[in-house]
């Protein structure tokens, strides 16, 4: 059992930055790949990025490469998403998800068992 809580969303102007946090509880946090998934109004869920259990490998959607950075602090049971150079098209609800298989996160996390409540990110032009 893993419980996830996101925070850090808000309203920011284009070109600005935000850092999202996802606090996790559970005995096996280190065994999970942690991912960020976003969903804009009227659109399907979109994979943003993921980080392996040890933090040794990260993966990003092409649309955010070079702008977003994922990290995790296993001692704090927390994963972060640093978002720089934000664009209006980044506007979405951002969800933190945990899965044992990165492939399921990269396809939108529909099969993943553990999700946070989401945090709204709005980027104005």
Q: Share of helix among residues?
A: under 10%
What is the SS-derived class? mainly beta
SSE order, one letter for each helix or strand: EEEEEEEEEHEE
Global shape: globular
Extended strand count? 11
The major β-sheet equals: 7 strands, mixed
Poorly predicted spans = none
What report would you give on this structure?
- The protein has 125 residues and is mostly beta strands.
- The chain is built from 1 helix and 11 strands, in the order E-E-E-E-E-E-E-E-E-H-E-E.
- The strands form 2 sheets. Strands 2, 4, 5, 6, 9, 10 and 11 form a 7-stranded mixed beta sheet that branches. The chain has a 4-stranded antiparallel beta sheet with strand order 1-3-8-7, with no helix packed on it.
- The longest helix is centred in the last third of the chain and has 5 residues, at 102-106.
- The termini are far apart.
- The model has no long low-confidence stretch (mean pLDDT 93).
């Amino acid at each position: 059992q893993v419980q996830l809580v996101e925070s850090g969303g808000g309203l920011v102007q284009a070109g600005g930055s935000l850092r999202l946090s996802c606090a996790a509880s559970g005995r096996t946090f280190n065994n999970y790949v942690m991912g960020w998934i976003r969903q804009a109004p009227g659109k399907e869920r979109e994979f943003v990025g993921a980080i392996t259990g040890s933090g040794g490998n990260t993966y990003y959607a092409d649309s955010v490469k070079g702008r977003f950075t994922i990290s995790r602090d296993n001692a704090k049971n927390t994963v972060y998403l640093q978002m720089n150079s934000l664009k209006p098209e980044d506007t979405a609800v951002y969800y933190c998800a945990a899965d044992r298989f990165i492939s399921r996160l990269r396809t939108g996390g529909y099969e993943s068992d553990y999700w946070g409540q989401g945090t709204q990110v709005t980027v104005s032009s």
